[in-house]
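To: structure desk
From: M.T.
Subject: fold request, one chain
Message: Could you run this one when you get a chance? Sequence is below, nothing fancy, just the single chain.
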Amino acid sequence: MVLLYTVITNKTAKGQRGAIVAMIKGTQADKVIEVLQRISKRLRQRVQEVTLDMAAGMHLIVKRCFPYAHRVVDRFHVQQLASEAVQEIRIKHRWQAIDEENEQIGLAKKQGITYVPQLLPNGDSPKQLLARSRYLLFKHKEHWTYSQKQRAELMFERYPAIRIAYDLSINLTGIFNHCKCKEEAFKKLALWYNEVEAAGIDSFRSVARSIETHYLTILNYFNNISTNASAEAFNAKIKAFRASARGVRDINFFLFRLQKIYA
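Reply: Done. Structure tokens follow.
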């Protein structure tokens, strides 16, 4: 199911705004286009800006249905790519730590001795350190708790590749947070590409290629600082509501209840 929340700005009446809200079953581009084209062409042509992710289908929908709208790749989808690249490196090291621990346990059994796990100064084993550091890598270091700071110092010291990846992710977020215009963001992105090349991390090279492919629509973010945060927040509410109901059997009644609660 795809939720579309599109803001319309009236070009003739300054300051007057409206919205198109549609909930469509499935995410196939042709089906979504068919539904949206039921809206009058005049109204669709007034849409000036649409935020979306990097999926090709979504870009096709906007091109067909909102021909005069600027497409804005949502910044949080870009940041999510970088965060996933950081987590990929953490998970890789975690599996290595698990394998090393299993080998040490097997060796201890062969020698007939009791296995004593290696513990770090904060009381974590290397495997636990990597498992418990997941959430701190999503946050800026200014927002870490005391225990997260301890874990980060130990992890970055033992696994410098994670530190490099974390810094690249935070620097990308900083571009969105601090740049005031497209030109400034474009220059900062170019410098960030240089950092990625110097780091030599394959997953971040993939992130950089994705950004390079969509950089025009990504930079459109700096026109009006637009995101689809409101739609994402509403999706989160729907998921929480569905979870509280322990699933959905009667879809029509579920949608009726959503309308009564949130509409």
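Reply (cont.): Confidence is low (pLDDT under 50) at residues 5-16. Let me know if you need anything else for the meeting.
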